[in-house]
Amino acid sequence: MSQIRRQLIAMIDDALGDDPRRALVAAHSLSREIDWLQQKAVALARVNGWGWGRIGRLLGITRQGARKKFPLAPPAPPPHVVAADRYLKEQREGERLVERFRNGTLTRPEEEDPVFW
Hints:
Elements: H1 3-15, H2 20-47, H3 52-59, H4 63-69, H5 79-84, H6 89-103
Helix pairs in contact: 1-2, 3-4
C-alpha cells in the first residue's frame, strides 16, 4: 500500500473516530485532499483520452466547467505532502500571517512598543 493511501486511510479513520478534535481536523484535511484527488483523476482521464463532456458528467458539472476547473496541467502534490516540505515553511508562515492580518486576528505582543519613524 502506498504511503499516500495509508495517510488518507488514517485521516478517514480519524474523521470517523470518537475524538471530536481529531475528527474535525481530519475532516478539514480531507476536504483539501479531495481537490487534489479530483485533479489527479481528471489528469488520468485526460491521459486516457476522455473528453471534457464525459469528465464533467461524472463530476456533476458542465463540460465547460470541467475544462475551466481543471486546466491541462500535471496535478500538484497532495496537500499533506506540500505541508511536510521543509523548504516551503517560510512561505506557509507568510501566508498564515497575511490571513491573520486579513481576519483581524494578528496582534502585536504587549511588550513591544510601536516604533514611529
